[in-house]
Structures are given as C-alpha cells and as structure tokens.
Amino acid sequence: MDVLWGGIVQRRADLLLTPEQALTLYTRDAAWLAFADETRGSLIVGKLADLAVLDRDPLRIPVDQLHQTQSLLTLLGGRVVHGEDWLKGQSPNPRAALTAR
Known about the structure:
Elements lengths: L2 E3 L2 E3 L8 H15 L17 E4 L16 E6 L2 E4 L1 H5 L5 H6 L2
Antiparallel strand pairs: 1-2, 3-4, 4-5
InterPro entries: Amidohydro_3 (IPR013108), Metal-dep_hydrolase_composite (IPR011059)
Pfam families: Amidohydro_3
Protein name: Amidohydrolase family protein
C-alpha cells in the first residue's frame, strides 16, 4: 500500500496503521478530538446513531481492496440518509420492526 509522507509515497509496512487502529482513529478517536465523545464515536445507548452498513467487513479484507468497499445503508442521528431501498429489501424488514415498537 502507498502512504503519502511529506509529499513522497512511502511503501513501508511499519508506517501503516492496522485496520483496527484506522477504525478506532476514524470513530472513537475522531469524536474525542472534536470534543464530541459524549455524543459520538461509539454505539452506546444515549449517543447519536451515526453508522454505516458496509458491503464487506473492512477488518477482514486485504488492505488493497478497502477502496472497493461501499455503504449499503447510512444513518445519521438515527435517521436513514442513504440506502432506504436496500433496507426495504431486507427480511424481515428492519424498518417495520422498529416502527412496531
């Protein structure tokens, strides 16, 4: 994998984050850096439900295939902002289950 470092592409594996480190950096750590860790950064009751359902597990695929990952469903603040059609096609329909409560 290529890594941009000071305008020069590096290919040193020892400079790369693991997939787990990258996921933590983009979620929990990003919320902490933005002083938003009380409401964002992890899926805990009482926090905003910002999440994406992906078409593959980014922790289990080769790093060079990460760029092919697509979001099937995206929620911001618990509301669907992308993938309503995908959600309707699921069985049982999660939307119906949520509104039946």
